[in-house]
Automatic annotation (TrEMBL):
It comes from the Bacteria. InterPro entries: DUF2513. Pfam families: DUF2513. This is DUF2513 domain-containing protein. It comes from Gimesia chilikensis.
Amino acid sequence: MKRDMNLIRELLLFYESDCSLPYPDAHDDVIAQHIIWLIEADLIAGRLADSSASGSPRFFFPIDGRVIENNGQEYNYFPLTWNGCEFIDAARDETRWNKTMSIVGGLTFEVIKTYLQTLIVQSVTGLKS
């Protein structure tokens, strides 16, 4: 499965909002894999368990076990970590996000994060190098 940075952003925004935004529109298995990646990347706080024969985690749990209701559905709540907050602070602005994805969207997470941060620095008077 290919990592979908737009879905990662949507999931982080969803959890940051205490699950009050609409849940991202994707198949359950795709969302589950992205949640695993978010935990592995230390963007959300959760635990991985029950590795498959290949060593890949198949189950995950929020660290505090909270479940939040959204529009008649129940969702596990995963709080953002410091890294998750830092990333979503950079990725929140829709215009900045779209520009970043059009230029470096096919590259690694670190390149995307660095580009977003560069756009922020360039936009703040007095921070330009």
